[in-house]
Write a structure and sequence with these properties.
The structure holds two protein chains of two kinds. The mean pLDDT of chain A is 92. Chain A contains no helices and eleven strands. Chain A is globular and about 40 Å long. In chain A, strands 2, 4, 5, 6, 9, 10 and 11 form a seven-stranded mixed sheet that branches. Chain A has a four-stranded antiparallel sheet with strand order 1-3-8-7, with no helix packed on it. Chain A is mainly beta. In chain B, the strands form two sheets. A five-stranded mixed sheet of chain B has the order 1-9-8-3-4, with no helix packed on it. Chain B has a four-stranded antiparallel sheet with strand order 2-7-6-5, with no helix packed on it. In chain B, 0% of the residues lie in helices and 47% in strands. Chain B is globular and about 40 Å long. Chain B is mainly beta. The interface between A and B is medium-sized, with 29 and 25 residues.
Amino acid sequence: DTEVTQTPKHLVMGMTNKKSLKCEQHMGHRAMYWYKQKAKKPPELMFVYSYEKLSINESVPSRFSPECPNSSLLNLHLHALQPEDSALYLCASSRGQGLNTEAFFGQGTRLTVV
Amino acid sequence: LAKTTQPISMDSYEGQEVNITCSHNNIATNDYITWYQQFPSQGPRFIIQGYKTKVTNEVASLFIPADRKSSTLSLPRVSLSDTAVYYCLVGAGGGGFKTIFGAGTRLFVKA
């Protein structure tokens, strides 16, 4: 199984809502990532988890809250988002801190904030 | 992390070989060079990775000169389905692996 599964595929939420994005992998990878991608732009790194601990936060606003309940799951909790947060949110995983690590990406969650 | 520079876009025709060059002048000794492909509304997909000289797999080749300040992704005999954005990334894995994407190259393959 070389898949990273993200749910939901599409999400529409109001600015006062609380929602969560979910990501799952069963490849035994110990590093997991959240990216945000706006239209016609490259993915932007948001968070990196290594061995279930947050290792990198790229100065992301606190309305985005990541969580790694176990080595296979990664969540992104959303609260009080703004319309400009509408984007494709991508989850990825990789073996870990190796020098030649390939990242596997999910299909993403298309988020619309209204 | 080393900054990468790629052409913004390229056009090609079906059946041709496409070479996309990436410049990474500040590459560090322990950095690897990795290329990803992305179709619209999908996550990026790993294509190939190398450290030096030449790497080949079933979909592409990667050429890296001795000074490692640039690299060239070679796609043999492209088809319409190779129309996508191609990203060159340079970095190492240690100390909290970061995958930072550059602007990417939009490849258009025409019939």
